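Minutes, project huddle
Topic: does the predicted pose make sense with flavin mononucleotide bound?
PN asked that the exact inputs be recorded in the minutes so nobody has to dig through chat later. Recorded below.
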Amino acid sequence: MIENRKLEHLKICAETDVETSHNYWEDITLKHETIPRADLEDINLRTEFLGVTLKAPIIVDAMTGGHPVAKEVNENIARACEALGIGMAVGSQRAAIENSEMEETYSIITKYEVPLRLGNLGAPQFAENYGAEEIERAMEMINAHALEIHFNYLQESIQPEGDTRVGTLREKLRELAPHYPLIGKETGAGISRNAGEFFKNAGFIAIDVSGVSGTSFAAVEYYRGGKHGKLFWNWGLPAPYSLLQLKDLGLPLIGSGGIRNGLHAARALALGANVVGLARPVLKYAMHSYEQTRKFLENVIEELKIALFLTGVSGIGETEKIQYIIRGELAQWLRQC
Ligand SMILES: Cc1cc2nc3c(=O)[nH]c(=O)nc-3n(C[C@H](O)[C@H](O)[C@H](O)COP(=O)(O)O)c2cc1C
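Predicted holo structure (tokens), as shared on screen:
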């Protein structure tokens, strides 16, 4: 049952350490600017993304829906996103496509003025029988600005009941993408340059990198009995590496996977992300209350502001001017690939 699986994922992610062994955002150091360019309180985090204005360049990325507990989690996140003027993606809407009673666990977010609402469906379902009808239902359900299509083949190949078909997926997505605002998204293993070029050529409107550095879905499935989960725990492309590989494609980029604080967010923006996405770090707060969720995200925003202040930029439009050095394992990835 999808509902049971959703609850298991939430519990494992909230209570167990399912992080990859290395966070590649830690390999980046931003260069300090002795005399800042603007007052701290005047640092402007406001940004335009996919045609809407966000008060800060942050999205709470796709996590849940499809279970009564997920409804509360989504409501707490949506309320916090409304309060802070930031974006939100719901988790895979497959549960509601297959059982309409589950719709309210997602549509609850429309009670709030979330400035950017992203729907979510899985690529493996498009390899099977999903098409235009499912896209339209998912988008209508939350009055979405765009729909993330997640590519989670690492998870599917570890998951005991995994869906590993690819079939004519590329052809199907090439037909659909010109007609809908689609975002190509990973779930923690990173978007390759080849996939990025495919998204660009097919007509996707943005990419959500979700690379290695934070949540490992091989780890999550290991705790659900996936026997190869341990071996593939750290599989994938480092999030900042993936971001750099996609930077010159000309598509808006969500820098995500392992963003754990505002300094990580500043590093992602410096490397070329237009906004950043956080998922698992929000979950433990969203399972408790709206207040805790808002407080955590407010803190990330304050940290981001301080980082921009200390690097001598006055706002989001200038983040690509930030100088940085890259060390350690990330430097090795960049040297060799
Ligand atoms: C509990 C949980 C459920 C998730 N479910 C989905 C999902 O349904 N669809 C999706 O695209 N990504 C899903 N993700 C992946 C996240 O959106 C994100 O890409 C990934 O966790 C990396 O970000 P993080 O390191 O900040 O968690 C989920 C993540 C978590 C923690």
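Observations noted during the meeting:
- The first helix runs from residue 2 to 15.
- Residues 9-10, 13, 61-64, 91-92, 120, 148, 150, 185, 187-188, 210, 214-215, 256-259, 278-281, 283 surround flavin mononucleotide (CB under 6 Å).
No decisions taken; revisit at the next huddle.
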